[in-house]
Amino acid sequence: MKVLVTGATGYIGKRLIPLLANDGHHVVCAVRDKLRADKTYIEDDFIDVIEADFLKPETLNNIPKDIDVVYYLIHSMSNTSKDFEALEEQCAINFKNYIQTTNTRQVIYLSGITNEDELSKHLQSRKNVEDQLKSDAYALTIFKAGIIVGSGSSSFEIIRDLVEKLPFMIAPKWLNTKTQPLSVRDVLAFLHRSFDRKETFNKTYDVFGPEILTYKEMLLQFAKVRGLKRYILTVPVMTPKLSSYWLYFVTSTSYKLATSLVDSMGVQIIGKPSDINKLLKVSPMTYKKAVELAFEKIEQNSIVSSWKDSMISSGRLRNNLHKYINVPKFGCFKDYKERKVINDKKTVDKIWSIGGTNGWYYGTFLWKIRGYLDKLFGGIGLRRGRTSPTDLDAGDALDFWRVIFADKNQQKLLLYAEMRLPGEAWLEFKIEDGFLKQTATFRPRGLWGRLYWYSVLPFHGIIFNGMINKLVDV
């Protein structure tokens, strides 16, 4: 059967696609930018990648008409647009208008649990999308989940930051809000097993874990799994804005995402029971088990997807990487260096392992200072790190950079800066004619951009010389 997966580069989509392909289905991945699609998809006979932007109806003609089942996984947790609810709703309308012209029998949508009278604006938006997706032309199956726990999920990584960084926490009162965390493996099981199941047609199900926990209890259980002793004091006086700053400065989240999370975390998320567990033979695991399994993946360096690689982790870049792949030549400052390469493979491996816990090979403390300054002025700093210690793909987050192009065969890596800057910056590594060519490009914005470049120029001489020397020193 032919199945369409929207949100194919997202946290859930990247994990669901292999399951469907392994079943022998022909999977069509809808992405806004092919550069961000997993390279392994190109080599898989069961997977096609198409470009489709659901805010641009004319691009939806790229979707084949002979689709049987669709997974609608388009979500946003970003506050970068004040009218994001209207944008999400418009995506759903455009999607429905086109899918109704295809052979689609079933649409499966992953939403959020919305059983409270007062909802956060993100949960309210999910509910509005549910209403827009309903159609007489196809059957709609809706799964509504709460907190999703798994390696690389936003909730997991934020809790991890809090637990591992803070022995004692003075925390907001919303840590007493109750929720029912669900393992990402169980989310995938519900989505996967409902494929073309007529019993689930035109049904809505809340899916949730077996325990009702407060966020405080989740933090303490997480600490226990990690063998850490943690103390938490909740106070009633911390405003939503202060709570957002608290999350922003302590964890790897951006401020805009922190405000969205605080908005949602004040809402109790308790699911309504149904027969879906029995119908699909899913027995959701406990929160503790989900955390333990997540760390198994982390220790094996096998994290399939991470929220940090989503474009909303910084808010500086939009989804189309093509706009940034051609480094400008005019009106720019450049720092160019080259060195003779002794061993191509070892140098490429070093380049592909740069950043994160490996650091930047030379003057890492200066990179850290730049990261702290960036964070102080509302940027992302170095806190995102990297998802894999050895692999890089277009679209991946790398400290305060974004990977624009990564090809080991071409021996080229191109990064775009997402830190706070009075301009735009690129960093390119390329092996050509036996030399490693390292180019830092800065396109200033106004007088402040030019003053910034000259103010950091002395540090560039130290950092970039040292870095390229380490990269070729094998």
Characterise the protein shown here.
By secondary structure, this protein is of the alpha/beta class. Helices cover 36% and strands 21% of the residues. It contains 15 helices and 19 strands. It has helices at residues 13-22, 40-43, 84-99, 121-133, 154-165, 184-193, 215-225, 240-250, 255-265, 276-280, 287-299, 322-325, 344-352, 364-376, 446-472; strands at 2-6, 26-31, 47-51, 69-72, 106-112, 139-145, 148-149, 168-172, 178-179, 182-183, 203-207, 213-214, 231-235, 333-340, 397-398, 401-407, 412-417, 423-432, 435-444. It has a 7-stranded parallel sheet with strand order 3-2-1-4-5-6-11, with helices on both faces. Strands 14-19-18-17-16-15 form a 6-stranded antiparallel sheet. Strands 7-10 form a two-stranded parallel ribbon. α3 packs parallel to α4 (121-133), α5 (154-165) packs across α7 and α7 packs across α11 (287-299). It starts with a strand and ends with a helix.
Mean pLDDT: 85
Strand order of the largest sheet: 3-2-1-4-5-6-11
User: What's the β-strand tally?
Assistant: 19
Radius of gyration: 23 Å
Q: What fraction, in percent, of the residue positions are helical?
A: 25-40%
Strand count, sense and closure of the main sheet?
7 strands, parallel
Low-confidence stretches: 77-81
Q: Give the strand content.
A: 15-25%
Shape: globular
How would you classify the helix and strand content by structural class? alpha/beta
Span between termini: 50 Å
- Number of helical segments? 15
Summarize the structure.
Helix content is 36%, strand content 21%. It has 15 helices and 19 strands. Helix 8 (240-250) crosses helix 9.
